[in-house]
Amino acid sequence: MSTSSWSLEIESPVPAARLFKAAVLDWHNLAPKLVPEIVVSAAGIEGDGGVGSVRQFQFSSAMPFSYVKERLDFLDLDKLECKQSLVEGGDIGTKIESASSHFKLETSSNGGCVCKVVATYKLLPGVEVKDEITKAKETLTGIFKAAEAHLLANPAAYA
Predict the structure, then answer these.
(1) Which of 7, 38, 59, 129 is least surrounded by Cβ atoms within 10 Å, i.e. has the fewest?
(2) 3 state DSSP class of 110
(3) Which of 75, 95, 106 is nearest to 135 (CA)?
(4) How far is CA 46 from CA 14, 22, 41, 84, 104, in A?
(5) CA gap 81, 79 in Å, rounded
(6) Does residue 18 form part of some domain?
(7) CATH number of the domain enclosing 81
(8) How far apart are CA 105 and CA 42, in angstroms?
(9) pLDDT tens for residues 37-86?
(10) Distance from C-alpha of 125 to C-alpha of 123, rounded to nearest angstrom
């Protein structure tokens, strides 16, 4: 089975550096507070938050799986860019062989930013993608919009 990908752009009025810190780097701390109906708990389970670190997210019944573990494969704090790979949980082993997400936040002309996401995955033989891509895009948009709302309501957070 070949590798496939999809992309998404999310616009935000929040400055890129603040949104990157909140929605990408520190999401394991914010998610259970901001979206407890989806993320029951989350924590860094290996490493110090740098490349090679692993985080685990435990989900409520709102998600089709109970948890995911993701590894940080690449991080450039100056360019507000990172790549994460799914290493366990989710649909690994049942629908997909591998999956990764590349995030890059860029400053927009209005002082906010654009979050560019490219997700790459390799399906297991015989598996077809139906509405999973739409759901994944909706989930990612929800993550960034929840972080955005938190940052707008708390101007000193992640400043």
Answers:
(1) 7
(2) coil
(3) 95
(4) 30, 19, 16, 14, 23
(5) 5
(6) yes
(7) 3.30.530.20
(8) 23
(9) 999 999 999 999 999 999 999 999 888 889 999 999 999 999 999 999 99
(10) 6
